[in-house]
Design brief:
By secondary structure, this protein is α+β, with helices and mostly antiparallel strands. It contains 7 helices and 10 strands.
């Protein structure tokens, strides 16, 4: 594994509080491997039994759901340092979503199931056991945090009015700013997929909101012009 890949993994929340040397040892025990993907490559296909969770080392990936008509809805996006597919890896179940590379990216795959194996580290090695305990604690926190994000996503999609979906998205983005678990939206097509709406309808609504002084479109970014809009 390249030194820069190890540095990126050490910066992931899964290994927060674990010394780099212990992280490197755990990666070996968890059969870590690194894969590269080009834009639009599928890192996970619908129904895949992946067995491992992914850590984004560079770039952005998106978890996407396809309905029976082939319409794509983005469930969540993950930037550098984010962990994805951890629930399916822990449960050892087929993937219910596809994971697509939004940008050229590198992903480290780690077998989380090895953490429950009592032989994964030397039972006499207290430092190694402490590292495993910390990673399991971090994983629990990440799963809880992901549950909150998915609840927030469900609340957003439950809104009948497109404007309300946009408002909740902007509220969520403001609260999650700076956290690596969610990658920023970079264009309206991606936002339309995230909100499960037609891109042209989204563009029209954003135009109306800008005319009303609620937001400003600055390049590819949406800036809240009226703070009261989020109340």
């Amino acid at each position: 594994m390249r030194a820069e890949d190890l540095d990126a993994i050490c910066g992931c929340e899964l290994f927060a509080g674990v010394a780099p040397a212990e992280t490197a040892r755990l990666l070996g025990a968890m059969d870590a491997r690194v894969e590269s993907y080009e834009p639009n490559d599928l890192a996970v296909r619908l129904g895949d039994e992946i067995g491992s969770a992914g850590i984004v080392l560079a770039g952005v990936v998106a978890g996407e759901f396809l309905d029976n008509a082939g319409k794509v809805t983005t469930v969540m996006r993950f930037g550098a340092g984010a962990l994805f597919a951890e629930a399916m890896a822990v449960l050892d179940m087929p993937s219910m979503v596809e994971v697509r590379a939004v940008q050229a990216c590198r992903v480290a795959w780690v077998d989380l199931g090895r953490l429950s194996d009592p032989t994964v580290v030397d039972p006499r090695d207290e430092a190694a056991h402490a590292a495993v305990h910390q990673v399991i604690l971090n994983l629990t926190r990440l799963l809880a945090h992901k549950n909150v994000l998915l609840t927030d996503k469900a609340q957003t999609l439950s809104q009948r009015r497109l404007r309300d979906r946009i408002r909740l998205y902007l509220m969520s983005r403001a609260s999650m700013e700076g956290q690596g678990s969610v990658a920023p939206i970079t264009n309206q097509s991606e936002l339309a997929r995230l909100l499960a709406v037609d891109r042209s309808a989204l563009s029209r609504e954003l135009g109306r909101m800008q005319d009303e002084g609620l937001i400003r479109i600055e390049g590819r970014d949406i800036v809240v012009a009226d703070p009261d809009f989020l109340d």
